[in-house]
Amino acid sequence: MKNRILLTLLIILLPVIDLFAQVPPPPDYGEDAGTPGSPSTPIDQYVILLIAVGFIFAGYYLWRQKKLVSQ
Question: How far apart are CA 53 and CA 65, in angstroms?
């Protein structure tokens, strides 16, 4: 069962690994610095990925707890 979960997580995460191989954008100077239109950096994308992985683990944990309670 654990191997299937790890395989599923790898399948989900493999398409986004190339996000971290890109060259970071140039520094954001000027009037639009720090605005929502500024380019995202690989660090921003990494944080979003970590949050997504956290949601996956939390969802699995809650699903597993509900499944154990119903048995």
Answer: 18
Tell whether 17 is covered by a domain. Answer: no
CB 37 within 8 A of CB 28: no
Give pLDDT tens digits for 26-62: 666 666 566 655 556 667 777 788 888 888 888 888 8
The percent of the chain in helix, strand and coil, each rounded to the nearest 5, is 70, 0, 30
* Domain region containing 56: 41-71
Identify whether 11 is part of a domain. no
- Which residue in this structure is represented by tokens 């949601």? 55
Number of folded domains in the chain?
1
Q: Which residue has the higher pLDDT, 11 or 59?
A: 59
Does the model's pTM come out above 0.70?
Answer: no
